[in-house]
Design brief:
The complex is a heterodimer.
Chain A (H helix, E strand, L loop, with lengths): L2 H11 L14 E10 L2 E11 L4 E6 L5 H8 L7 E6 L2 E2 L5 H8 L2 E4 L11 H12 L5 H14 L16 H12 L6 E5 L7 H17 L3 E5 L3 H7 L2 E6 L2 E6 L1 H6 L3 H8 L1 H7 L2 H10 L5
Helix pairs in contact in A: 4-5, 4-6, 5-6, 7-8, 8-12, 10-11
Chain B lengths: L5 E7 L2 E10 L5 H8 L7 E3 L3 E4 L1 H14 L2 E3 L3 H12 L13 H39 L6 H11 L4 H23 L8 H39 L2 H8 L3 H40 L3 H11 L2 H28 L4 H32 L4
Parallel strand pairs in B: 2-3, 2-4, 3-5
Antiparallel strand pairs in B: 1-2
Helix pairs in contact in B: 2-3, 4-9, 5-9, 6-7, 6-9, 7-9, 7-10, 7-11, 7-12, 9-10, 9-11, 11-12
Classes of the chains: A alpha/beta, B alpha/beta.
Chain lengths: 291, 369
């Protein structure tokens, strides 16, 4: 087959919405967000900007609306008020075409992994590829699925296993492999280390940082885990009183006198992490890279 | 329009170089990947210096081609080298699907599995029935452990709240039997036998059978789902550790409720079915409502009522047994609750119908035909 014929065939199969480019500094910009369930207001007047290339940790007490915030950004929760711009487009008013373009450029890891239970891990990784890039050859998709599985820190033979056969930590890695399937620029992680043992959690943190550096990812990371914050986050956003009360590096946040922040970082657990030598090192090496 | 990645060939002192142009990302690689896979001939180097943005898919495509050609990659920028290395390290040739045996082997294997499963689950269910009996005797010896509140709650769930739907269903079935029966019997001028048909069929068979099917759908499924969820959330284990027997606290009240409620519901269903038949007869066949009911007394022998009432508690037992058994078998994940619930209903209805056939033959043989 000659090259023009190939080109034509590929173009015919490709979804033409996916050629947008974004060069702005803030892939995610939230302004005046308000979310409520019935009488209960979760967010009010919430503003947040995520910088390109940073790992942004989002912390907050249970029920402070961290997951709701993430769901709002990825379009699963329709906000009452406010605008959410992702890659420069308002997600709440995006047309189907723009929506498709935005969705092809982010990856989401849900808390439980949210793998499709009837498909193997490898097939799970192929789902977004088939959905967004039907022009790719099946061979290429198989190859991509294989290396993404390994890239996510799983043994190669995990690709042929079903989610039910995996442990909790492996499920999260498999979920990460699927989130990375499209080589996204923006990665959402919802409590990636929750429920993992300390060793597994530390490895997952390391993997996240490695991938963020290698693949130039912008990471929006919801966590409860102080170790994760110190180890991999460039900046931390604190959610309390229905809004983002502070965003900054950990040393900056430590200077804040907001009671929740003080209690969070200077509580018994916070102190324990601060006093560890590797925590201080983590702050040095990553603390300023997002600036 | 999307800008697709492309290549050109350059010749330099006998060495052929493949020069890649354009962005090498997942959204632009489609054409280049196909072209490189179909590429005939040989190149010595792959030049990336004119390529644009690159991601892991672009890096993989270049890497795969360079390995196939045994060509060197030149002109890779910092980002490209990093990705090439990352992808190189993550290379794998593992299968994406688990190995499957041939169809000729799989069919007997699956069949065998089903047979074994059927055997073990029959045995286990019999064992479960035994447990219920033991728990029942235990309760007789220690009546203070009886939980009247739990039983009454189940009475309401199994009995009272089902009255409307069972009543409506029976009424409609009564109409259908009388109407269809009359249409056939009319051909012999034996229209009056519609009353016998409706009365005897409702009392002996349909009242209890339809009620059992409805109770299996309503309660068998909810027993399985409730107990299954309680097992998943470790409520059942928590009970055991406090010294409360799940058999006594969870299973027995449900079994007792089903066994006691089924005869009442079955009888109620038969009555409603007769009323349905009488109504349609009065409307379309010209048999007055009152006459229909007095004829029922004359043509339905009293043992028909007993046949229905003897079967009812047995069916109730079957429904509660399968529901509770399947619920208590739940292990692992929430998916299993759904599976077990379906299984409970299917098994209950199947067993009820099998037993009903058995009862039909039995009662005819003993002279209650």
């Amino acid at each position: 087959m000659n090259e023009d014929a190939i080109q034509e065939k590929v173009e015919a199969k490709a979804i033409d919405a996916l050629d947008e480019d974004f060069d702005g500094e803030y892939p995610v910009v939230i302004k005046g967000l308000r979310n409520s369930f019935g009488d209960q207001v979760v967010h009010e007047e919430l503003d947040l900007k995520v910088k390109r290339g940073e790992v942004l940790g989002v912390v907050g007490g249970s029920g402070s609306g961290k997951s709701v915030l993430m769901r709002s950004i990825i379009g699963l929760q329709i906000p009452d008020e406010g605008t959410i711009e992702v890659f420069g487009r308002d997600i709440t008013e995006a047309s189907a075409r723009e929506d498709m373009a935005i969705r092809s450029r982010w990856g989401v890891l849900f808390q439980g992994g949210a793998l499709f239970s009837t498909l193997t891990v490898g097939e799970n990784v192929e789902v977004p590829l088939k959905q967004f890039y039907p022009e790719l050859l099946p061979e290429l998709m198989h190859e991509i699925a294989r290396y993404k599985v390994v890239l996510s820190g799983l043994p190669a033979d995990t690709a042929s296993k079903y989610p039910a056969e995996l442990s909790g930590g492996m499920k999260k890695r498999a979920g990460l492999a699927r989130a990375l399937a499209l080589d996204p620029e923006l990665l959402f992680l919802d409590e990636p280390t929750a429920g993992l043992d300390p060793i597994g959690a530390a490895r997952f943190d390391e993997l996240t940082r490695d991938l963020a550096d290698t693949l130039d990812l912008t990471v929006f990371l919801i966590t409860h885990d102080l170790d994760t914050l110190y180890a991999i986050c460039d900046r931390v956003a604190v959610l309390a009183d229905r809004k983002v009360i502070a965003v900054g590096t950990i040393p900056e946040l430590l200077k804040s006198d907001h009671p929740w922040i003080q209690e969070y970082f200077n509580g018994p657990r916070g102190r324990a992490v601060q006093n560890r030598p590797e925590a201080a090192k983590g702050m040095d090496s990553h603390g300023q890279t997002g600036e | 329009m999307r800008e697709w990645a492309a290549y050109s060939l350059e010749e330099d002192g006998g060495r052929r170089a493949l020069v890649v142009t354009g962005p090498l990302t997942i959204s632009t690689i489609g054409a280049l990947d196909r072209e490189l896979r179909a590429f005939q001939g040989h190149v010595d180097t792959i030049d990336l210096s004119q390529a644009g943005a690159i991601d892991t898919v672009g890096a993989w495509t270049v890497l795969r081609f360079s390995r196939a050609q045994d060509a060197k990659i030149t002109g890779a920028g910092e980002q490209a080298s990093r990705l090439l290395q990352a992808v190189e390290e993550a290379r794998s040739s593992a299968a994406l699907l688990p190995p499957r045996s041939r169809l000729t082997l799989r069919v007997p294997e699956t069949l065998g599995k089903y047979v074994v499963e059927f055997g073990t689950s029959s045995r286990d269910m019999l064992g479960f029935a035994g447990y219920i009996l033991v728990a029942g005797f235990g309760l007789l010896r220690h009546p203070s452990r009886f939980r009247p509140k739990a039983v009454v709650l189940q009475f309401e769930l199994v009995g009272v709240s089902a009255l409307f739907i069972i009543g409506l269903m029976s009424f409609l079935i009564g109409i259908v039997i009388a109407q269809q029966g009359a249409a056939q019997l009319e051909q012999f001028g034996a229209q009056i036998y519609t009353i016998n048909l409706t009365g005897r069929l409702s009392m002996r068979e349909l009242g209890v059978l339809m009620t059992a099917i409805m109770v299996a759908g309503r309660c068998g499924s909810s027993f399985a789902a409730q107990l299954g969820t309680m097992k998943l959330t470790e409520e059942v284990d928590a009970m055991r550790t406090i010294g409360v027997s799940p058999m006594e606290a969870l299973v027995l009240p449900r079994v007792i409720a089903a066994v006691l409620m089924m005869p009442l519901l079955g009888f109620y269903s038969a009555i409603l079915s007769i009323i349905g038949g009488a109504s349609i007869s009065a409307l379309t066949l010209g048999i007055p409502f009152h006459t229909f009911l007095t004829r029922i007394q004359a043509v339905v022998p009293i043992y028909d009522v007993w046949v229905g009432l003897v079967k009812a508690p047995v069916f109730g037992m079957i429904v509660a047994l399968t529901g509770c058994y399947q619920g208590m078998q739940v292990q692992g994940n929430s998916e299993e609750v759904g599976l077990r619930t379906t299984l409970a209903v299917v098994q209950a209805i199947f067993l009820v119908i099998v037993l009903d056939a058995f009862f039909a033959v039995f009662f005819t043989e003993v002279g209650w035909g």
